[in-house]
Design a protein that fits this description.
By secondary structure, the chain is an alpha/beta fold. The chain has 16 helices and 18 strands. The longest helix has 19 residues.
């Protein structure tokens, strides 16, 4: 495992974090004369330092679906409430052009012509509504009128209820044992609050549903060779790596525990650490993951993760094969001979590496066995801080996946590696609609939704 000799950023408080951002810019970027020069050389600045020495991965664990012990471990861990389900929903969604993905409701918000228009804008060519219709399992209006975020919460509750019935337990009691962490943007808070109260917290215990409002920040500016935090600049998120760093600050996670009493209860850093020590695994879901809509609980992969956790791994990442016909960018798995281990390297650290040279892609679906330990490492050291110049200001872009440089990390793949299935751009809207239609067709799902609304 790479050895971190000194902290990257100071996470004692928000102000210490911002001071670190300015200090890092001054230390690393002072040779550049302007933000425009930094923007022109972003690839060079963010480039992985040993890119030319990387080799093919040495060890990718193979997921075997038939193994009985890991399957039993996984089902029992979920049944006991020992798995923390983290839902990341705070992204800016700039490529989708439709605002917050959590509140995206295809049945209510989109018709064929609007989908065609968005897909055409994204592709730079005219897309006919008839061509879109040919890709769809049903018209948008035939879907249940549920937002993407509501669908995520309902699917998890639906599958836990199914597990409880299989095990002969009370669905209500098993749901009440579960713990969630829901990460949202600042502009989403009132809508999220309304959503959870309308749906009666989806059957989960409000005292065990934690929230984090990911903060956005002004950009850095450069004047007379000195960087400074410019409050006149637009506010932006510091990517999903800041999300995990913010979780380690004091009084960032909160609950709405009391029925209709909407006062937030904030939890201290020490209390959050104690809470995390009670879990055998944390699963970090991304709101844009479309496979989740019919498979929130993958007991086979969870069982493998729990076994890897028993061997000392504290992060487990799934990889998929790149498409050889139409390769795409993404995080790349490779062997770093200097570190003596496989590492996951974020796409903007790959310089001018052609997409076709990326054999194994990060699926952006992370597990953290014994999550207190990765949380503690992030708290103590922070994460690497890549940069981006946007709208004429400097913003940091740390990534969650770089936790693999802090803790022992394993990588696994399925025997048949499916392509990445997520909702990032308008081109994925037909796939998203079809996955929602498949979710609605699950036996008992519509009835479950009705019960959840009325309970």
């Amino acid at each position: 495992m790479p050895q971190v000799s000194q902290p990257v950023v100071d996470l004692r408080s928000r102000d210490h974090y911002l001071a670190s951002c300015v200090g890092l810019a001054q230390e690393k970027l002072s040779p550049f004369g302007s933000l425009a020069e930094i923007a022109a050389r972003e690839r060079e600045i963010n480039r992985y330092p040993r890119l030319a020495q990387l080799e093919e991965p040495h060890l990718i664990h193979l997921l075997e679906d038939g193994a009985p012990r890991p399957l039993r471990l996984a089902r029992e861990a979920v049944a006991r409430g020992e798995v923390l389900f983290e839902h990341a929903a705070a992204g800016e969604g700039t490529r989708l052009l439709m605002g917050s993905k959590y509140f995206l409701n295809l049945a209510r918000d989109l018709k064929l012509d609007s989908i065609a228009h968005l897909m055409g804008m994204d592709a730079g060519e005219v897309v006919a509504p008839e061509a879109v219709a040919a890709q769809l399992a049903c018209p948008p209006g035939d879907l249940l009128p549920l937002s993407l975020g509501t669908r995520h919460m309902l699917q998890l509750a639906f599958e836990i209820e199914g597990l409880a019935r299989e095990l002969g337990e009370s669905p209500r009691e098993m749901l009440a044992r579960q713990h969630l962490l829901v990460i949202v943007g600042e502009e989403m808070v009132s809508g999220i609050e309304k959503d959870f109260y309308q749906w009666h917290f989806y059957g989960f215990d409000p005292a065990r549903v934690y929230f984090l409002v990911q903060e956005s920040f002004h950009g850095l500016n450069l004047k007379n060779g000195c960087f400074f935090y410019d409050t006149a600049s637009p506010r932006r998120l510091h990517n999903h790596g800041q999300m995990v760093m913010q979780q380690t600050l004091d009084r960032q996670l909160f609950t709405w525990p009391g029925g209709l009493a909407r006062e937030r209860v904030y939890h201290s850093q020490a209390a959050v650490g104690d809470w995390l020590q009670g879990f055998v695994n944390k699963i970090s879901y991304n709101i844009e993951d479309l496979d989740y809509l019919t498979g929130a609980l993958d007991f086979h992969s969870l069982g493998l993760v729990l076994e890897l956790g028993e061997k000392g791994f504290r992060m487990v990442m799934e990889v998929v094969a790149n498409n050889p016909v139409k390769p795409q960018k993404g995080g790349m798995l490779a062997w770093d001979p200097e570190l003596g281990r496989d590492v996951m390297i974020e796409s903007f650290q790959l310089g001018d590496l052609p997409y076709r040279d990326i054999a194994f892609l990060n699926r952006n679906f992370n597990h953290y066995p014994r999550p207190f330990e990765s949380w503690r490492r992030v708290r103590d050291f922070g994460l690497p801080m890549p940069v981006a110049v946007k709208e004429g200001f400097l913003y940091y872009q740390p990534v969650q996946g770089d936790i693999n440089f802090l803790v022992p990390t394993a990588f696994f793949r399925r025997r048949e590696m499916p392509p990445i299935s997520n909702l990032k751009t308008p081109a994925a809207l037909p796939l998203a609609l079809n996955r929602m239609a498949a979710q609605d067709r699950q036996p008992g799902f519509r009835e479950f939704v009705q019960r959840a609304w009325e309970s």
